[in-house]
Specification:
This protein has 15 helices and 17 strands. The protein is α/β, with parallel strands linked by helices. The chain folds into 3 domains: about 260 residues, 3-Layer(bba) Sandwich (FAD/NAD(P)-binding domain); about 100 residues, Alpha-Beta Plaits (2-Layer Sandwich), CATH 3.30.70; about 70 residues, no CATH class. This is FAD-dependent oxidoreductase.
């Protein structure tokens, strides 16, 4: 196992740490109340007397998609690693979600098609999957977070940071409906979880600090979603999830389709294309794509089930990332999480799960454990143990040492960003490799891309006929294990052989 795969395994632990004996923070501010902000607030509740979440949307999440989440109506996937993190930080979350209407799923309920050929589903955890809409899931996360007595939501918009003597000492926000100059809030720690549209880079540069370069990969994704009634009298099926991919080859456009069962007896159905292949808002175009491009059950749903919504479209121009771990100079007491760090092609469902793993990175940092986790180096910008220990002032604890008291908050949170880099690199690698195969994507191409492309394409199609390869790949796409686990010589050879067998069997 590579060093960064070991770090990744530590971050994705399903075991919740015990709360610290004392809280070192008086007040913490979280800018943004989406999944990343709520998960950060939950972790901070163990370390701060008061946690204030600044969020402009004051509507109850469960009533529907929030204005701050423009893609909230679309299909969202909770990957296996994300579900384990929810149960880690909110014990009993899965059971509570099921009691509230979310559907449990097993491999037998899931279908996955590659170029029209079914890939068997495999069991990658001992916890049943959890199926729901994004608003349902976010609403429950919010309710569980706000059960902590020290956490409150302030309805308003963050407007800037307050930085003094090299450290963030608070933020300003404008309460909803207030046209004034804004309100100053003091804080011992600030988390930016304001998403893809984060203004942190501007705030830093205005205050004389550098921001990491914004790396973009133009994917030009276009997708559309509609909701239908799930009635077994109309369509009797045991399938609860279907994901169907067509890969790009000459004469064939890359397309993605999916449907998922959700609470309140609904099907949420999605179709997606790239570049100039744009699903329209018309029901005619939506139903045509379902019937023409994907397995028969797509057509069965749109032809026989009651339509409950308009067709809603969404466009995402790029995948993007900012590598804060690379900055030589950065304010202390400042954390960045979720899409404000990196966001990916939503087809792969990594967004919410990445945000949950960022919360685990925050926990490790605040508990002073980051240096120990990074001790062997992550291979993704992370410091060795000695450097991390010097950066946070806590030292790298040995197995027999007492639990560390936490980081030196007068220094930048580099150990945190080093951990986050491991998560970002893993998700970026898993999503951008297939995206780079799209004819309209110009890069950037990583070193060794051509060889890796051949292996990854063989791995994908080979997993249809090779159960062990399918299991290894599914654990990576479920974000349970790092992509490096697929790069062992044995797995590479197995992928090439299985891919060759698949292509030969489907040559006709």
């Amino acid at each position: 196992m590579t060093a960064r795969a070991r770090v990744y395994a530590s971050i994705t632990s399903r075991h919740a740490p015990p709360p610290p004996a004392t809280r070192r923070l008086g007040r913490a501010l979280v800018l943004g109340g989406s999944v990343a902000g709520l998960m950060a607030a939950r972790v901070l509740a163990d370390h701060a007397d008061e946690v204030l979440v600044i969020e402009p949307d004051d509507a109850e999440v469960g009533a529907g998609p929030r204005p701050g989440v423009p893609q909230g109506s679309q299909v969202h996937a909770l990957l296996a690693a994300g579900q384990l993190q929810l149960d880690r930080w909110f014990p009993g979350f899965t059971a509570q979600a099921e009691a509230g209407g979310a559907l449990p799923s097993t491999p037998a309920d899931v279908e996955f098609y590659i170029d029209g050929v079914a890939r068997p589903s495999v069991e990658i955890t001992d916890v049943p999957g959890l199926l729901s809409s994004r608003p349902f899931l976010e609403s429950l996360i919010r309710r569980r977070t706000l059960e902590f007595p020290g956490i409150r939501v302030l309805t308003g918009r963050a407007t800037g940071l307050r930085i003094e003597d090299g450290a963030v000492v608070g933020a300003t926000y404008a309460p909803n409906g207030d046209a004034g100059a804004g309100v100053d809030l003091d804080a011992d720690l600030v988390v930016d979880a304001t998403g893809r549209g984060s203004r942190l880079a501007d705030w830093l540069e205005q205050a004389g600090w550098s921001a990491p370069p914004l790396v973009r990969m133009p994917i030009k994704l276009n997708y559309a979603t509609a909701v239908y009634r799930r009635d077994p009298k109309v369509l009797d099926t045991t399938t609860l999830v279907n994901v169907s991919l067509t890969t790009p080859v000459p004469g064939r456009l890359p397309r993605t389709g999916g449907f998922v069962a959700a609470e309140d007896d609904r099907w949420i159905v999605l179709v997606a294309g790239y570049d100039q292949d744009r699903p329209e808002r018309s029901l005619e175009d939506f139903t045509t794509r379902c019937r023409r491009d994907f397995p028969g059950m797509f057509g069965d749903i749109v032809d026989h089930c009651e339509l409950l919504s308009d067709v809603v479209t969404y466009h995402q121009a790029d995948s993007r990332r900012r590598d804060y771990d690379t900055l030589a100079r950065f304010p202390a007491r400042l954390i960045v999480a979720g899409d404000a760090v990196a966001s990916f092609n939503p087809v792969y469902g990594q967004g919410m799960t990445s945000a949950m793993l960022h919360a685990s990175c925050l926990s490790a940092y605040l508990r002073g454990e980051a240096a120990d986790m990074l001790g062997s180096g992550s291979g993704g910008g992370a410091a060795p143990a000695e450097a991390a220990a010097s950066a946070n002032g806590s030292g790298a604890p040995s197995a027999a040492a007492p639990a560390p008291s936490g980081p030196d908050l007068s220094l930048p949170a580099k150990p945190y960003f080093d951990l986050v880099r491991v998560i970002v690199d893993a998700a970026w690698q898993t999503s951008t490799f297939p995206d780079l195969a799209l004819p309209h994507v110009p890069g950037p191409y990583p070193r060794g891309y051509r060889i890796a492309k051949r292996v990854s394409e063989s791995m994908l199609v080979g997993s249809v006929i090779d159960p062990e390869l399918n299991l290894r790949l599914s654990r990576v796409t479920g974000m349970l294990t790092h992509p490096d686990t697929l790069m062992s010589p044995g797995t590479v050879v197995r992928s090439l052989r299985s891919g060759r067998r698949f292509r030969k069997a489907n040559a006709a």
